[in-house]
Write a structure and sequence with these properties.
Helix content: 40-55%
Number of strands: 12
Distance between the termini: 29 Å
CATH topology of one domain: Rossmann fold
Strand content: 15-25%
Strand order of the largest sheet: 3-2-1-4-5-6-10
Structural class: alpha/beta
Order of helices and strands: EHEEHEHHHEHEEHEEHEEHEHHHH
Number of helices: 13
CATH class of one domain: Alpha Beta
CATH superfamily of one domain: NAD(P)-binding Rossmann-like Domain
Bound molecules: nicotinamide-adenine-dinucleotide, thymidine-5'-diphosphate
């Protein structure tokens, strides 16, 4: 038994791989293109661990996919790989179309071809698990009910439109070809190994460096926030017990405006690493809003709780404290990301061996 994970050097993928191998001896083949967001240092603790096979490659490379599937014969494909940052999608949508739509298409086709070679129990057991986002549902008004799995799709950014397209492809490959798929749509994650271009890690590293904390617009945009370890446990539950062809929304039951998130981070830093210059909130600055900025996301996570018995283990208070402490304890990881040094890791650690 083996899992094929795509994007396992990114934020959520690396957390998933580390959590998986902490609880299971089932090996993981980890395919990642190591874009700017892929960081093999996230997986440094697995060095020398034969259960983790890292493959540097692109999900758009059909020949590579065919070879990996034939060689490792995974019982599941867990698809995390994506371009994931909304602001980057506004500046350069091309990579989002290429990886999130065309890459997912190629992965689906390769998995379908491999699945068609399987027989009996192995064929019935195969799963293609597509990791997606709540952003595909678009923006909610302040009092509207939270997103359920039947909420209409209304993506507003190039990122969310590309993820919506990939969700539709996954659905169609199930309905048309019978491919045994699972799709999860999750809210905003936070936790260790989060690339500091996203709100929470950016605020932590900027505050520690005495740099401005840029809040877009009025800062009253609302997101639901989930600790990344809880996302990983939800994916494990869906992979183990989810019904083929079904969609599960994953959320933290924790809606918060961005402004409150930033103030919470500042207050934790004031407690854990006080600055001689005064409270970190002094660094907050309001900057021009993001174009097409969705006002509110909220997840109704009752289906996954009812059907699979999953609920988040962390509260926001416990998860954000762990997260801030992780960044304080991993200044070397932050420094390597900021200097770009993490991109040399492949050469330093692998090529030179
Ligand atoms: P990330 O940007 O941190 O990591 C993405 C990883 O995919 C990187 O390691 C990158 O190198 C790799 N990758 C990119 N293009 C590739 C390609 N063509 N071939 C192979 N690998 C490639 O993203 P993340 O935050 O870890 O998100 C993982 C998945 O979860 C994405 O599909 C995202 O849409 C989804 N998601 C993210 C969040 C969130 O809050 N971060 C919430 C819900 C869903
Ligand atoms: P982000 O972490 O980019 O995730 P997403 O856009 O996928 O939800 O942003 C989270 C929220 O924080 C979003 O409403 C945009 C806002 N934001 C800021 O106000 N300032 C920033 O510097 C960043 C990166 C995000």
């Amino acid at each position: 038994m083996t899992l094929l994970v795509t994007g396992g050097a990114g934020f959520i993928g690396s957390n998933f791989v580390l959590d998986w191998l902490a609880q299971s001896d089932e090996p993981v083949v980890d395919l990642d293109a190591l874009t700017y967001a892929g960081n093999l240092q996230n997986l440094a603790s697995l060095e020398g661990d034969a259960r983790h096979v890292f493959v540097h490659g692109d999900i758009g490379d059909r020949a590579l996919l065919d070879r990996l599937l034939a060689e490792h014969r995974p019982r599941a494909v867990l698809h995390f790989a994506a371009e994931s940052h909304v602001d980057r999608s506004i500046h350069g949508p091309g990579a989002f179309i290429k990886t999130n739509i065309e890459g997912t298409f190629t992965l689906l086709e390769a998995t379908r071809a491999y699945w068609s070679t399987l027989q009996g129990d192995a064929k019935a057991a195969l799963r293609f698990h597509h990791v997606s986002t709540d952003e595909v549902y678009g923006s909610l008004t302040p009092d509207a009910p939270a997103f359920t799995e039947s909420h209409p799709y209304a993506p507003n950014s190039p990122y969310s439109a590309s993820k919506a397209a990939s969700d539709h492809l996954v659905r169609a490959w199930h309905h048309t070809y019978g491919l045994p798929v699972l799709t999860t749509n999750c809210s905003n994650n936070y936790g260790p190994f989060h690339f500091p271009e996203k709100l929470i890690p950016l605020m932590i590293v900027n505050a520690l460096a005495g740099k401005p904390l840029p809040i877009y617009g009025d800062g009253l945009q609302v997101r639901d926030w989930l600790y990344v370890g809880d996302h990983c446990s939800a994916i494990r539950a869906v992979l183990a017990r989810g019904q083929v062809g079904e969609v599960y929304n994953i959320g933290g039951w924790n809606e918060m405006p961005n402004r409150d998130i930033v103030h919470t981070v500042c207050a934790l830093l004031d407690e854990l690493r006080p600055s001689s210059e005064g409270p970190y909130a002094r660094l907050i600055t309001h900057v021009k809003d993001r174009p097409g900025h969705d006002r509110r996301y909220a997840i109704d996570a009752r289906k996954i709780e009812r059907e699979l018995g999953w609920r988040p283990a962390e509260t926001f208070a416990s998860g954000i404290r762990k997260t801030v402490m992780w960044y304080l304890d991993h200044a070397d990881w932050v420094a390597n990301v900021q200097s770009g040094g993490y991109r040399d890791w492949l050469a330093t650690n692998y090529t030179a061996r």
